[in-house]
Amino acid sequence: xxxxxxxxxxxxxxxxxxxxxxxxxxxxxxxxxxxxxxxxxxxxxxxxxxxxxxxxxxxxxxxxxxxxxxxxxxxxxxxxxxxxxxxxxxxxxxxxxxxxxxxxxxxxxxxxxxxxxxxxxxxxxxxxxxxxxxxxxxxxxxxxxxxxxxxxxxxxxxxxxxxxxxxxxxxxxxxxxxxxxxxxxxxxxxxxxxxxxxxxxxxxxxxx
Length: 208
What we know:
By secondary structure, the protein is mainly alpha-helical. The chain is 81% helix and 2% strand.
């Protein structure tokens, strides 16, 4: 009965999750600089944050955010500051990149909790994610759809997001791929940092 609605959600999510953004930049950096294990924990954090978005949509908080410019702008500014910090950290790391006997060394891996938290906060503070889920739960999903079905949608979205970024983590974490990327020089690291900084400036100045 709800298959048409579900497939619409799948397609919308596919376009959203595969588009470049803070989540992609953070997972890519973790994969290349800290290794697959750290990146997968970060991916799990990103996927888990989807449940946060789903929860406040079901509770109506997303609607409240959309109706309160001050509250939404405060969240947007907080996200901008956080992404700017991550971008600066990435650029700083590029300045101390080292090569030992032709192999690029990994940075010390973050603990599972810190890597998970990095992904969770990055996605949880992303205003674009807030607007995406607000649109999803007000335009795509019928208000008469049972809450249980909507929760199932949320579990799918969280699981699919995790699997996508975990897949990227595995690919980018392959030693040959990682070394190839890092052998491009510290400019890649700086580019990832610059992307995060540009996203943060866009959030702070122009909104979403």
